[in-house]
Amino acid sequence: MPEGDTVWQSAKRLHHALADRVLTRSDLRVPKFATADLTGRRVLDVTARGKHLLTRVEGGLTLHSHLRMDGSWKVYAEDQRWTGGPAHQIRAILANTDRAAVGYRLPVLELLRTADEYKAVGHLGPDLLGPDWDPERALANLLRGPARPLGEALLDQRNLAGIGNVYKSELCFLLGVTPWLPVGALPAERAAQLPALAKKLLEANRDRPVRNTTGRRGQDLFVYGRAPRPCLRCRTSLRVADQGDGSRERPTYWCPTCQIGPAPSPRRRAPGRTHPRTSRRTTN
What we know:
Layout (H helix, E strand, L loop, with lengths): L3 H15 L6 E4 L14 E7 L2 E6 L3 E6 L5 E6 L12 E6 L3 E6 L3 E6 L4 H4 L13 H9 L6 H6 L9 H11 L12 H18 L33 E6 L4 E6 L30
Antiparallel strand pairs: 1-6, 2-3, 3-4, 4-8, 5-7, 6-7, 9-10
């Protein structure tokens, strides 16, 4: 699933291609909005809210989309070939005389009144990359569930918006605790560091094509996707196990030496399994 910095990049590309331009083509390929036509309307802006994308157009309308695991928005020049996938995977096309924004495999696509955007994103906590960022409120949201594993709490967008599975693992490593540590057991001084550290990670990566949390060239991530390779700090073999709330299990990485707290038995990797590709991101 794309993280907040990736969605922020998508919003930036879409805004640059569409904002303050009149749409010459509009095609929403989902049954509920298949007859909706935005042609002739000016795009006002495209903004990210956590992992959600909001494309606002004249007439008080907003096109709301969410990428989840496989969705993407691609921007193409007028004469450029579309390469984001087969045509049957296209869910939306917004175009002007110079650029076409094409949404592939979008699991969430809806047209709503701009005044009703709260119905789509009102449940979100403070956005790490947004103007509403409030570190005190974000920390208070996390601490409201003291028995909840920290990794699960960080992924809950109602607490703070923008952290995905990569940043969950990397943030826990930098805090020196496992993702299974109950939020209430997080040492006070580390809890106080959490909001600022999370924001620092996302802000540092929102303009990078390759995500980096280590500050080292060629060694982009501390733990995510690296098991069973050695920890960059202590050389202990890194571990991976599933973590989730029952609805979805996510591969979670940690160092058993550098991180304190409970942890399950490491998961066995199936023969031939490769590390997930998470640090490299498309920029078109």
